Amino acid sequence: MKQEGYRSKYEIKKVEVTTDVLTGRGGLALFVRYLYMVGIYELLAERFNWIRKSMKGVAVWNIFKQIFCFFYDGTSRHLVYFDDLKKDEGYGGIIENSHKEMISSHQVKRFFRVFPLGISWAFRKVLKVLFIWRLKIKKPEVIILTLDTMPMDNDEAEEREGVSVTYKGYKGFQPLQIIWERKIVDVIFRSGSKPLNDSIRG
Asked: What is the sign, positive or negative, of the torsion defined by CA atoms of 40, 96, 109, 151?
């Protein structure tokens, strides 16, 4: 996939020996490069650039990049952690961002609030494009898809609109997923009380 215009101006150019102990965060540099190589930035920009009302501020694809890195890092599950990351020059360097490109927790919240209800179809299209891209690379003789749910714990959240008790006993959501070789190729977001054999729409 072409990615012209989505390469960071602050990308890592050189790797040297260090006496520092590398933690799991060290893998973020490779993760960021992987996101670029698979073409995810362009796909997301094509479908969500309408969110950006002006050319000022951080690009939509870069906001997605930072959110992906936030989940991949896993150090914190709280959005306020973006404020700490914004102050961390080392973290910004790892994900190839300048200080001005780093987003705050308020920017993330505003970004999520822009999405209207029912926007999941756009994300599902992105997943399908990536699925077809992987199939063209691997060219499998047989495609085996798995249907499964993933209960999500939302007990700690202050705002829990739409959650319901999952079969695991906590309040959350339970999306229905189609999986191929441990990769999600389609998903329907559902409340936590929905069973696996519930009627599938969409």
From this structure: positive
